[in-house]
Design goal:
heterodimer; A: Fumarate Reductase Iron-sulfur Protein, Chain B, domain 2; FAD/NAD(P)-binding domain; 3 domains; disordered C terminus; B: alpha/beta; Elongation Factor Tu (Ef-tu), domain 3; Rossmann fold
């Protein structure tokens, strides 16, 4: 990620770099200019919902991959929650072996088109990149995410997708509750191991946060659908409109012959600040705002029936990726002024750097060190302003982030008609509430054995945000993978439910 | 897909659907609702379940054509057609008991239904009656032809009192008048109304709650707010109850009517009024165009 766009090397230079790569010493590689990807112009892109960055061209991807130093101790791999062999696939990309590279990624990561786009690379693989360390600037890290997305797109659009081989049928059946990134990963892995996998999804479409939360301009829905279609081709079954805990319970799944259950219901319960005025018209949770715009297609209202409010002035509360998504969505829905209101300063914002950068480029106005204290409404009950208290940074909290300290008497009113709260989500309580034998933490997340992801109830595994709290897509996928392995081991150690009891 | 096994007109702008949804039918308990998305471009709307047939695997929904989605459902879907999505049963079942009394207490429950509130009231009436309570059902509508489920409610209740605003059926007056008289009449005879359950338009529920409050009669209301998912994910359905935001989908749909901020709820219900009107106008226009074009196209084909 760079703050300014720079000139890329000429095509001849790129070719020369690729052809001469074998002669380059690590020191030389570290000094090679970065390859920037093109992006939709900010002024133009706020008028559409198409993806912002354009993919690398094959030659760009290869030239960027040449910058990798192939460090022996692989610091990037240790930064990856699922341990993708980053130097390995970058080497193959540099050599032009895209097929080999995507195969290597898929050994550890089933959904690279998604991870390449939504992983916080700057705090994972790219954070540890030695090239960045040499330059003392994270912006100089090898663009692992962009190359990963390029490879997945290449496979889907040109190379032809190779589906992972499905294992010999074991006759064992696993129920996966929730069709988000964690559930999808687990389902795919279970099929590779030969188990039957049925995904129960509450909504009418699979993908979870990938379809209801993350907007089209950051993750095109056709990509998510392609991955879901691939899983279906691998034999994963999908059952929609099933709210487990309401439509049927976990116990009933066992009664129906499932041998194990994976709970991946996510963190779907939006938090509100509990400040006065939150029940006024024009106040949204980011979940609702984004679900209307994305999953329900309110961008296309009235072609699609679900509306979302469109107003000139919008405040988004929070500093994470969801806040950035909501702010940028508001711009695309025609807002003239979008304020991102955050209690701390820019440095403490948990959002991906690229999202912050894109939001700023597009004209989102950052109101840092501002704590919302009240939502003000007119006599008609519609929001007219957000009242904030100015803050300064105090001592670091337990996570090392400096605490916001309100400045006495320093209040400010921001005139807005819509307030979107993006301050986090809690775990969905439906499964814990309706399933006997599950232990929850005081945050409401499910307690699991970290080695196996098994809950306190035998045969019931869990992962993703229902275990981790609000976390990342890649961590949720990592849980799904770990759980699939553990479920496999568990099924092998257990007598099949259908076989007669001994003794 | 969820096939419409039966569709019946139930008076002006109201249709009854029996929809094949065996899983929902099996789990349903009184008071619960489903989220319905009639077709791939529709909104997801909450509809309270009026009845189930577990053997046939159907649920009964009664739909009043008021907005684009419900008008489309009643006009555009016929028996044998399918709804794209039906998810449920959602929300908490009605607590079949009297708040503040022991679980084994049996008393008199006044079930007050306004308009098509009669439909979701039916399973609640049955549940209280089956549990051994004395159920007096008060059914009201503006006119005779807007009364629905009169027979079914009559059969399920110990007593059925009907009223209409214009006096075209039953007593002339509002359900609140009948409710007030029911409470006073029973008290005069040494009895009481121990619980009131009100389902209907928000204003009707508000005034039922206001009617019972001075008598200290506990009152349940079943709220039907704007929802997207119906599982606690969006928070769009939140309503202030005793000064605290509660989610109708997961904390409700039934709440203590004396504690609900009905005015706030009605204000939020109107949040998308311009959008709803635009959506409906567009639908009507297209509908009109279709009707004009269809015969013309047919004529062209013939020629």
């Amino acid at each position: 990620m760079s703050e300014e766009r720079r000139e890329n090397p000429t095509p001849d230079e790129l070719t020369a770099r690729i052809e001469g790569r074998k002669d380059l010493k690590p020191k030389d590689r570290g000094q090679l200019p970065r390859i920037f990807w093109a992006e939709q112009d900010p002024a133009e892109r706020v008028g559409n919902i198409r993806e912002v960055p354009f993919a690398y061209t094959p030659i760009q991807a290869r030239a960027e991959a040449v910058r990798c130093l192939s460090c022996k101790n692989e610091p990037c791999v240790s930064g990856c929650p699922v341990g993708v062999d980053v130097p390995g696939f970058l080497k193959l990309v540099a050599d032009g072996d895209f097929r080999g590279a995507i195969r290597l990624i898929k050994e550890t990561n089933l959904l690279p088109a998604i991870c390449g786009r939504v992983c916080p690379q700057e705090s994972q693989c790219q954070e540890n990149c030695m090239v960045a360390k040499v330059h003392k600037d994270l912006g100089f890290a090898v663009s692992v995410g962009k190359i990963e997305a390029f490879l997945a797109d290449w496979e889907r659009e040109e190379g032809g997708v190779e589906l992972p081989a499905v294992g010999a049928p074991t006759g064992r059946r696993v129920a996966i509750i929730g069709g988000g990134p964690s559930g999808l990963t687990c389902a795919g892995d279970l099929r590779r191991l030969g188990h039957e996998a049925v995904v129960f999804e509450a909504f009418h479409k699979a993908g979870g946060v990938l379809v209801y939360g993350i907007p089209e301009f950051r993750l095109p829905k056709s990509i998510v659908q392609a991955e879901v279609d691939n899983l279906a081709k691998m034999g994963v079954e999908f059952e929609f409109d099933t709210v487990v805990g309401q439509t049927f319970t976990v116990d009933e799944l066992f009664d129906d012959g499932f041998d194990a259950v994976y709970v991946a219901t996510g963190a779907g319960l939006p938090y509100f600040l509990n400040v006065p005025g939150e029940d006024m018209n024009g106040v949204y949770s980011a979940n609702e705002y984004l679900t209307r715009a994305n999953l329900m297609g309110a961008f296309r209202f009235p072609e699609e029936d679900t509306p979302v409010l469109r107003r000139d002035n919008v405040a988004v509360l929070g500093g994470g990726n969801v806040a950035m998504d909501a702010a940028r969505t508001a711009l695309r829905l025609g807002a003239k002024n979008v304020y991102l209101v955050y209690r701390r300063s820019r440095q403490e914002m948990p959002a991906r750097l690229e999202e912050v950068h894109h939001a700023e480029q597009e004209g989102v106005q950052f109101r840092m060190l501002s704590a919302p204290v009240e939502i003000l409404a007119g006599g008609d009950g519609w929001v007219r302003a957000l009242r904030v208290q100015r803050c300064e940074l105090g001592e670091p909290d337990e996570k090392g982030r400096r605490r916001p300290v309100p400045i006495e008497g320093a209040y400010e009113e921001i005139p807005v008609e819509i307030v979107i709260e993006a301050i986090g989500n809690g775990p969905n309580p439906l499964i814990p509430k309706t399933t006997p034998g599950l232990t929850t933490s005081r945050h409401g997340t499910l307690v699991v054995d970290e080695a196996t992801m098994m809950t306190t109830r035998k045969g019931v595994f869990a992962g993703g945000d229902i275990v981790a709290g609000a976390s990342t897509v890649i961590l949720a996928m990592g849980h799904g993978r770990k759980a699939a392995g553990a479920i496999d081991a568990y099924l092998k150690s257990e007598t099949p439910a259908s076989s007669p009891e001994l003794g | 897909m969820f096939r419409i096994a039966l569709k019946q007109p139930l008076g002006e702008n109201v249709s009854l659907f029996e929809v094949e949804a065996p899983r929902v039918a099996r789990r349903h308990r009184a008071g619960q609702f489903v989220m319905v998305r009639p077709h791939a471009s529709s909104e997801r709307i909450p509809l309270t379940i009026a009845d189930v047939d577990r053997d046939r695997g159907t649920i009964t929904l009664v739909v009043q054509a008021v907005g684009k989605t419900t008008i489309e459902m009643t006009e555009g879907f016929a028996e044998g057609d399918e709804f794209a999505n039906v998810a449920g049963p959602l929300g908490n079942p009605t607590h079949i008991g009297v708040p503040g009394k022991p679980e084994d207490f049996r008393g008199t429950v006044a079930c007050v239904a306004g308009g098509i509130g009669a439909a979701p009231m039916l399973p609640i009436v049955r549940a209280f009656r089956d549990a051994g309570h004395d159920v007096v059902t008060i059914l009201g509508a503006r006119r005779r032809d807007l009364l629905v489920f009169e027979d079914r409610l009559g059969a399920a209740s110990n007593e059925l009192l009907v009223c209409t605003d214009d006096g075209s059926a039953g007593r002339k007056g509002f359900v609140t008048d009948v409710l007030k008289d029911a409470i006073e009449g029973r008290r005069a005879r040494g009895g009481d109304v121990d619980l009131a359950v009100a389902i209907g338009p928000p204003l009707m529920m508000k005034f039922c709650s206001k009617t019972t409050e001075p008598y200290g009669v506990a009152t349940l209301v079943s709220l039907n707010t704007i929802m997207v998912d119906g599982t606690g994910m969006c928070g769009g359905c939140r309503v202030m109850v005793d000064g605290t935001a509660r989610y109708v989908c997961v904390d409700g749909p039934e709440f203590d009517g004396h504690r609900v901020d009905f005015d706030g709820m009605m204000r939020r219900q109107a949040m998308y009024k311009p959008e709803e009107a635009a959506s409906l106008a567009r639908y009507r226009e297209r509908d009109h165009t279709c009707r004009l074009e269809a015969p013309a196209a047919a004529a062209e084909t013939e020629a």
